[in-house]
Design brief:
The complex is a heteropentamer. By secondary structure, chain C is an alpha/beta fold. Chain C contains 18 helices and 34 strands. Chain C is elongated. The chains are: A alpha/beta, B mainly alpha, C alpha/beta, D alpha/beta, E alpha/beta. Chains in contact: A-B, A-C, B-C, C-D, C-E, D-E.
């Protein structure tokens, strides 16, 4: 399988391990990634707040670059990026009269033909292969956290089901993990308030961490860099807010699969987390 | 003979919202499901259904009450409300629109300043480099918001974990980026 | 040569003041074919009509133009008058000198000329008129009622008591419908079965009613007064005549764990079963999908224990065709399932139930014998949340309409719960309280004021489970959208009322129209609420729109009165304004080439195939035939026909051509 | 060509068909229809670019129907005509047997379903010249168009060659033959000619298979096919239904959608 | 000719909506120009396009075709079929150079008495401005002689 790749800004910085683990896992599964050349930021979380035109033009430039490179399908692992790309693509499809202005802004033709996929969609296609290649089953109890942007708004993303989604649960099952039944799979973590309103992030993410622990999870698995930042980078604020110390790690789904496939933890960026990825001996683990 | 087409009245805020977002405020029938599910509903001075109620009536003083509120700046665009709304109202789109309106009129809530500083710093960063430079963003945000000490403890840890680059990633076609911003934001 | 009489009416001053009627009468005398032309003050008066009748006889007239008011006003009057004088009524036409001329134009020569023109056109038309005779259609005085719920039972009883035969067709094994599942009914809180079962028995024992339970309508041919309905009698797998309903087979059936439809999945039943103890008829059916014998080929316990040897494993469905004069559809509704609510867990929480499940929990004959026990662990729920408008008034769920009955039954549910669990807390999330009806609002107020049910105005955004409780996240919009969180033991969703499964299919079988949501469409929303656009087919109950019991019963009696009106005549008389297909001698037989392009143009499915056979039975030609019982005379087929093989009586090609050629 | 003959012979020999209708060389090197009832007669069949006639026209004739099952050498327009004739119940689906060229390969299409499948792969574009002519006419002023057609139709002698050559003009009793009332004057004068061609075009709207046979048949060279082409295109454009695509009848002018869009009804 | 020209207008209307609407015009005593001659048919579905041609042949300068609004047809769908027929016929007339300004299609309900008067007046004025339909008249004369 060959697929276009749009890593997005977070994957170059604060979420490097998501980029590393995505590349490592997909390479191990024989997927060839073609990075969109000279890509720009999609404008996520800020552009739409301040300027609607800009929130269309930034993703449009990325899509146009991909089209020029002959890419028909783009993987955007970051949930925020894939959401923004889809939103812009759909708005321009619904309002073709806006395309001319956007083309003028980005200085190249725009057709909007490339299909945008998220990391769970790509992994989903490879699920049988992943299950077959699993050498070190990830025998943990997992709280799968999808967040907002992967499943909402359903009219835009049209992925999985908007409440209680299942794709990541099926994926972790394929590598030997046990998903816990919990109600907060798609509750908001505080997203873009990571820097500005850390208090809100602590409260919203705190609710998630606390409930995941309560329901017996060993690890929270995510597929969005913003969610990960809030659950990992902001853990001290969370613990401070809760007045409890929670050491439950937050991992990217690609890291979980990478470990199960037997890839080098360092290549997967496991060491980059603020909350160290360490597990107590649990019943599920000892059963293996 | 009869014309079913409907043209929003651009004299009113409700009409401009409809023209700008395609959302018809009258579709909201005040069931409160948005407020019930909003993750920051209890933080907001005006929960989303109240924002809609005040705007629906079309009284300028009530419009202004909304534009001056803090709540509209707390919307995370998590889309929980819109995906559960029985009337399929795209509430976050309206939130985006009225924040712009509040800025235009210069009556945005004082507490919006931090949030705004962040977004401005964010866009400035990509305007000049094409991609988001997180270190620059945070530094710029601190200058703008004057929260100098915030997160000082986090940065060294992140640096150790290899999560902070010291230099921005520059894209090649930076002049194209300038044009893009100029044509959309109307600034150069 | 025609002998046509023209009678110009002054209508007092109404026409006379603007149109020079005498001059018109004089002008018309010179029109070829006119044998007599006069004007008169009031043609519609008795002397006016008498004068016309005498003139017909005196001048031996064979056609009449009455130039007076609109034919929509007095055409029947003058056609009757002409008929009484011995001339075919369809040889009389009316020129509209009043509404279309004198009342709308100035008094001048042009107006008088127009009046004369209008008459001339019709004189030419009449020359091409042919005598027409009303179409007589026999009426089969047997009605079929489809659906044996409270509406269907009421229709059947009313028609039967009116002295006519009724066949009551019900798809499930017993009549009774949803009402038999209810515990108590609003606003009186009388027990549903107590008031319904006597009616069920009455229907079963009525000499004029034939029950066909476990049966479905398969096919409908024909038209008003003359339907041929094919009913599929599904195999009960037993001989109903031999079975005494002793119930031994049910007691002995080893397969006891089947989810019970009557109890909405809250109880279990056996593979051979009657849906509920008071079922009518009290005859079991074998559920072949779950019966061990049909799955493994072994068992047959029921056959062994049956004292009358009534079990028939080899029995098959039977198709019965019946002559029917009128059909009443009373097929009812279904409720949206809890699975349809993503935000409330897609139906995965056992303690989130729908309104009908609550009815079974509250019912003395239900799975808990009327004791409040929640489904998950059988504990008495201490806090119950009721959510009105669950799926109704919710375009994101495809149901933008109000389900109409939920406000009332939710109040009833909360009340019933409080009556059973005195210390319990009941909360109702609602959007509006629609309690319009006799004693309805008082009932809701009673729930709030006397039974201490807490009403919260807002929708619920999410329900999730935590520590054995259901966390209900709502908001109170009367407190400015303040978030409200309730830890509940059970949640009851007043889910939307929807059209029944396969209602669209049935509508297509019967050629009845239906709305976007699958509810059958009435002929006119105000003035013909129980008729459909297809003659002889009527509607009762919730198959037309969400309805409560009183409304369904009222509508049922209305539909019955329509049927009785139809059955009060031995023959239906219909206007002969219908389309006909031309017929010729061989070898042409008809101008029709049998392309049947007209068939889909007909709004009434009145165009059938007719085979022209040779003596040896060989088909020479297949041509269109218009069923005069179904044709309503719109003429759309006429304008579609390329060969001019179809013509419309009363508005024929020749008539219209003649009219235009006179312009 | 040899492959075609081979298939035709096979069909005749196996007794699948009683005759094969194709083209043969006529006087003056024109192509004329040819019924081959024996393998020897098959040898006279030709198929080249000069073969243009829509042979479907013959299949609805009594004489041909009496022959029994006939295989037809079918050009795309002939195939469309056959589908439409089945849809309009003038031919039975099981009476169809087509010999169609698919590139250089000969295909036997034994049923309507096979024809549908075969045609689904082809795009049927109107001949460029006709399309250009229609566009040219539409670019004229109305008065110019009136003048154009008056000029053209003035040559019409009402010989009905257009009608007789048309596969869809199979009606035994045509509107033109109506005399009670006499809808269209019999004589070939300006009014009668205009009405005749207008009626024909309307009767082919939603039914014309766009073979252009009527235009080729006209002895005085009136492009009458443009009228039926135009009517068919107008129908297809407005309602999305086309003639000759299915054996299931889907006639645009006896079906409707409640939201059919027009701009002129006040 | 131009000064004294009074157009001849033929209207084909359905019995249930437009004819009844025109009756209401009368009952409401709304005055309109008397040039129109109404032919009553049961439904617009009955209106053969050839009737329009015949009206022009007989010297009509303008034609009105009117029936029930969509969704209000007494026969549930006759007007929908009529609408499709007109959509194609109008195109074809235009293609053949017939002056489609002289044919007015409209929906007038039984409640729209005032609308009927307005429609007739507008059409009458419009046709008066257009003048006699000389092209077709010439044709018809040639045809009949």
């Amino acid at each position: 399988m060959r697929i276009g790749y749009y890593p997005g800004c977070s994957l170059l910085g604060s979420s490097r391990e998501f980029d590393e683990s995505t590349r490592a896992v997909l390479t191990a599964l024989g997927v060839e990634l073609t990075e969109v050349s000279d890509w720009n930021c999609c404008g996520a979380s800020s552009a739409h707040v301040l300027n609607h035109e800009l929130s269309l033009a930034l993703p449009a430039r990325i899509l146009a670059l991909a089209e020029q490179a002959g890419i028909t399908e783009i993987l955007a692992p970051c949930a925020a990026c894939s959401n923004r790309l889809l939103s812009a693509q759909q708005e321009l499809a619904a309002h073709p009269e806006k395309i001319a202005e956007i083309e003028a802004a980005i200085g190249m033709p725009y057709k909007g033909t490339a299909k945008i996929v998220n990391i769970l969609e790509v992994l989903g296609r490879l699920k049988d292969q992943i299950a077959a290649k699993t050498t070190k089953p990830f025998a943990k109890k997992v709280a799968n956290y999808y967040g907002c942007l992967l499943v909402r708004p359903p009219r835009v993303v049209n992925f999985d089901r908007p409440e209680d989604p299942q794709s990541m649960d099926l994926m972790v099952k394929a590598v030997g993990a046990t998903p816990v039944e919990w109600p907060f799979k798609t509750e908001c973590c505080g997203a873009a308030f990571s820097v500005t309103r850390t208090d809100i992030v602590a409260k919203l993410s705190g609710k998630l961490v606390k409930d995941a622990v309560k329901r017996g999870a060993d690890v929270i698995v995510v597929a969005c860099p913003m969610c990960h930042s809030n659950l990992d980078l902001r853990r001290s604020e969370i613990n401070e807010y809760l007045g409890e110390q929670h050491g439950i790690p937050a991992m990217f789904i690609t890291q979980v699969i990478g470990l199960a496939l037997g890839l080098d933890p360092v290549a997967l960026g496991i060491q980059r987390h603020m909350v160290p990825v360490e597990f107590k001996e649990t019943a599920a683990a000892s059963a293996q | 003979m009869s014309s079913g087409s409907h043209h929003p009245n651009l004299e009113t805020l409700a009409g401009r919202i409809e023209a700008g977002t395609g959302v018809k405020l009258a579709h909201c029938y005040q069931c409160g499901k948005c407020a019930a599910g909003c993750p920051v509903g209890d933080e907001m001075d005006l929960p989303p259904c109240q924002v809609f109620r005040l705007l629906q009536l079309g009284f300028p003083d009530l419009d202004e009450k909304v534009l001056r509120s803090e709540g509209i700046w707390l919307c995370l665009a998590c889309e929980t409300c819109s995906s559960r709304c029985p009337q399929e109202v795209e509430i976050p789109k309206v939130m985006d629109f009225i924040r712009g309106e509040a800025l235009k009129r210069g009556i945005a809530h004082p507490k919006s300043k931090d949030i705004l500083s962040f977004h401005r710093a964010f866009l400035d960063s990509i305007e000049y480099t094409g991609r988001l430079y997180e270190v620059g963003l945070v530094a710029d945000y601190k200058l703008r918001s004057r929260h100098m000490l915030k997160d000082v403890m986090l940065a060294p840890k992140m640096y150790i974990k290899g999560k902070l680059g010291l230099f921005p990633h520059l894209i090649k076609n930076r002049s194209g980026m300038k044009t893009l911003f100029k044509r959309t934001m109307g600034k150069g | 040569m025609s002998r046509i009489g023209v009678f110009t009416c002054h209508c007092g001053e109404n026409i006379g003041a603007t149109v020079d009627c005498a001059k018109v009468a004089e002008m018309c005398k010179h029109v070829p074919g006119v044998a007599h032309s006069v004007d008169y003050k009031y043609m519609c008066s008795d002397p006016g009509q008498r004068m016309m009748q005498e003139a017909i006889k005196e001048h031996n007239l064979d056609g009449v133009v009455v130039a007076a008011c609109s034919p929509r006003m007095h055409e029947p009057t003058f056609r009757r008058a002409v008929s009484n004088a011995g001339v075919n009524p369809y040889m009389c036409e009316m020129a509209n000198l009043r509404e279309h001329c004198s009342w709308v134009h100035e008094k001048n020569d042009a107006t008088t000329q127009k009046a004369a023109d209008l008459i001339r056109v019709l004189v030419e038309k009449i020359k091409h008129n042919t005598p027409l005779y009303p179409i007589k259609v026999p009426v089969t005085k047997t009605a079929m009622v489809v659906g044996g719920g409270v509406a269907g039972i009421q229709v059947a009883l009313d028609i039967a008591n009116g002295g006519h035969k009724v066949i009551l067709v019900e798809k499930s094994p017993s009549i009774g419908g949803h009402m038999s599942q209810l515990s108590e009914t609003f606003p009186t809180l009388d027990c549903s079965q107590c008031i319904l079962t006597p009616r069920m028995v009455e229907a079963a024992q009525h000499p004029n009613i034939t029950l066909m339970t476990y049966s479905e309508v398969e096919k409908v041919d024909g038209f008003i007064g003359n339907f041929k309905v094919t009913v599929r009698k599904k195999a009960r797998k037993l001989d109903e005549k031999l079975c005494t309903g002793c119930g031994l087979c049910i007691q002995k059936c080893p397969n006891k764990k089947i989810s019970d439809e009557f109890n909405e999945g809250l109880g279990t039943r056996t593979a051979i079963y009657v849906p509920f103890p008071q079922a009518v008829p009290n005859r079991p059916v074998i559920d072949t999908l779950n019966c061990t014998f049909y799955k493994t080929g072994k068992c047959k316990v029921c056959e062994k224990v049956c004292p009358t040897n009534a079990i028939r494993f080899e029995q098959e469905d039977e198709l019965v065709t019946i002559d029917i004069g009128a059909i009443v559809l009373a097929t009812g509704f279904k409720l949206m399932k809890t699975e349809a609510f993503p935000e409330y867990g897609y139906g995965k929480h056992k303690d989130i139930i729908d309104g009908m499940q609550f009815e079974r929990l509250a019912s003395a004959s239900g799975p808990t014998a009327g004791v409040m026990k929640r489904p998950s662990d059988g504990k008495e729920p201490e806090t119950v949340v009721f959510i009105a408008c669950s799926g109704s008034r919710d375009r994101s769920k495809g149901v933008p309409y109000c389900s109409k009955v939920c406000c009332m039954y939710t109040a009833k549910h909360a009340m019933l719960y409080k009556h059973k669990v005195h210390s319990g807390k009941a909360y109702v999330f609602y959007m509006d309280i629609r309690a319009a009806g006799k004693d309805y609002d008082e009932f809701v107020r009673r729930a709030i004021e006397e039974d201490d049910v807490k009403y919260i105005r807002g929708r619920v955004s999410k329900i999730y489970e935590e520590d054995g409780k259901l966390i209900v996240k709502g908001a109170d919009t009367l407190m400015g959208g303040e978030p409200v969180e309730i830890k509940a033991d059970m949640v009851v969703l007043a889910t939307a009322v929807q059209s029944n499964d396969r209602s669209e299919e049935l509508a297509q079988t019967l050629h009845v129209s239906y709305d976007t949501y699958g509810f059958f469409a009435e002929a006119h929303p105000k003035l013909r609420p129980v008729e459909t656009n297809t003659g002889g087919i009527f509607l009762a109950g919730a198959c037309q729109a969400p309805r409560d019991i009183p409304e369904s019963v009222a509508q049922a009696s209305a539909a019955a009165s329509k049927v009785l009106g139809l059955f009060s005549q031995d023959q239906l008389t219909r206007e002969p304004i219908v389309a006909v297909v031309n017929r010729q001698a061989g070898p042409t037989y008809s101008y029709c080439v049998g392309c049947f392009l007209c068939q889909t143009a007909c709004p009434y499915q009145a165009i059938e195939q007719e085979q022209i056979l040779a003596r040896n039975g060989e088909v020479i030609k297949t041509i269109a035939r218009i069923n005069p019982g179904l044709c309503q005379g719109c003429g759309t087929c006429v304008a579609t026909c390329r060969t001019k093989a179809i013509d419309l009586q009363g508005f024929s090609n020749e008539q219209l051509y003649a009219e235009i050629m006179t312009l | 060509m040899e492959a075609l003959k081979q298939k035709a012979k096979e069909l005749l020999q196996k007794g699948d068909v009683k005759a094969v209708l194709g083209y043969a060389v006529g006087t003056g090197n024109v192509r004329r229809p040819h019924f081959a009832r024996t393998p020897e007669q098959v040898d006279r069949l030709v198929l080249d670019e000069k073969c243009t006639q829509n042979l479907a026209t013959y299949l609805t004739k009594h004489e041909v129907k009496h022959l029994g099952k006939v295989a037809v050498v079918a050009l795309p327009a002939t195939q469309r005509a056959l589908l439409q004739l089945v849809a309009e119940r003038q031919l039975r689906d099981d009476a169809i047997c087509l010999l169609a060229m698919d590139g250089t390969e000969v295909k036997v299409l034994p049923s309507g379903a096979a024809v549908e499948q075969h045609l689904a792969l082809k795009t049927d574009a109107m001949p460029t010249a006709d399309k250009a002519m229609i566009e040219k006419l539409m670019a004229m002023t109305r008065e110019q168009r009136w003048a154009y057609w008056q000029q053209e139709l003035s040559r019409c002698v009402k010989c009905y060659a257009c009608r007789n050559s048309c596969p869809m003009c199979y009606c035994e009793h045509c509107t033109m033959d109506c005399n009670r009332p006499q809808w269209v004057p019999v004589a070939s004068h300006a009014l009668g000619n205009l009405e005749y061609h207008m009626v024909r075009a309307m009767h082919l709207a939603g039914r014309c298979v766009e073979c252009g046979e009527c235009g080729r048949a006209c002895p005085v060279g009136i492009p009458v096919h443009l009228l039926t082409f135009f009517a068919e295109e107008s129908t297809a454009k407005q309602f999305g239904q086309r003639a000759g695509h299915s054996t299931k009848l889907d006639y645009a002018l006896s079906t409707f959608k409640p939201d059919d869009k027009e701009t002129f009804i006040r | 000719m131009t000064e004294s020209f009074e157009p001849k207008i033929t209207a084909f209307v359905c019995n249930w909506c437009t004819y009844a609407g025109a009756d209401l015009t009368g009952t409401s005593r709304i005055n309109y120009q008397s040039n129109v001659r109404v032919l009553r048919v049961p439904c617009t579905g009955r209106i053969d396009f050839m009737l329009l041609m015949k009206a022009f042949q007989k010297g009509s300068d303008g034609v009105i075709v009117s029936g029930c609004h969509p969704n209000d047809c007494h026969y549930t769908s006759g007007n929908y079929h009529a609408r499709r027929r007109w959509m194609v016929y109008k195109d074809l007339m235009d293609f053949m150079g017939v002056d489609t300004n002289r044919v007015t299609f409209s929906w007038v309900s039984a409640a729209e008495g005032a609308r009927w008067a307005q429609l007739v007046n507008e059409v009458t004025d419009n046709i008066r401005n257009l003048g006699p339909y000389a092209e077709y008249k010439a044709l018809a004369v040639a045809g009949i002689e």
